[in-house]
Amino acid sequence: MKKEDLPKKIPVFPLSNFIIFPKTTVPLNIFEPRYIDMINDSMKSHKMIGMIQPKNSYIEQNIPELHDIGCLGKITSFKETEDGRYLIELKGVLRFESSKELKTDKKYRILEVDYNNFYHDLDSYKKEIEFSDLELIFKDLRTLFEKKGFIINWKALEKQSLDETINALAMASPFSLEEKQVLLEAEDLNMRKDKIAKILKTYNFDDYNNTTIQ
Fold this sequence. Notes:
By secondary structure, the protein is an alpha+beta fold.
């Protein structure tokens, strides 16, 4: 995607407990009327929405304050169910920084955003690294995944680029929302990898009992 094609004003989905990273794809089940409207409007234009985490503080009653940094996503798959829900797939494009929130007559929130610090998210990661080295780097992450009952297909990850792999693991990891926000805001891939390692050091793997994800 070219820089000039990036929208400067984007509708945002301030979804708690959910975060996307560049070059990762996630499914979303849209059922709230305001977000049905948002997807309808987006599908008629650039097919992009921003995912951003709300804070625990509030601008006004029932309107949560938002983090400064989120991730722009492009709708790559769209399906309407018989009961009126939208099932979409959203692919992370690049991160953005919120400049200001716009006042509109829409039911959903719209931000004016700046991409200047994150254009490198659009690049392919060129640094060569053996996948065996990546497995070594994330051995503690694998342990945490397994203790939590998560199953990771490492063979499938081998087929992805390094940035796709690291971002997918960061997104899927059983870290807290605050920890994932730190990973999202990491300046580049190497810094994200290092921050994952630092976060993992704070975990006591013996505290986790193996569970089955239903």
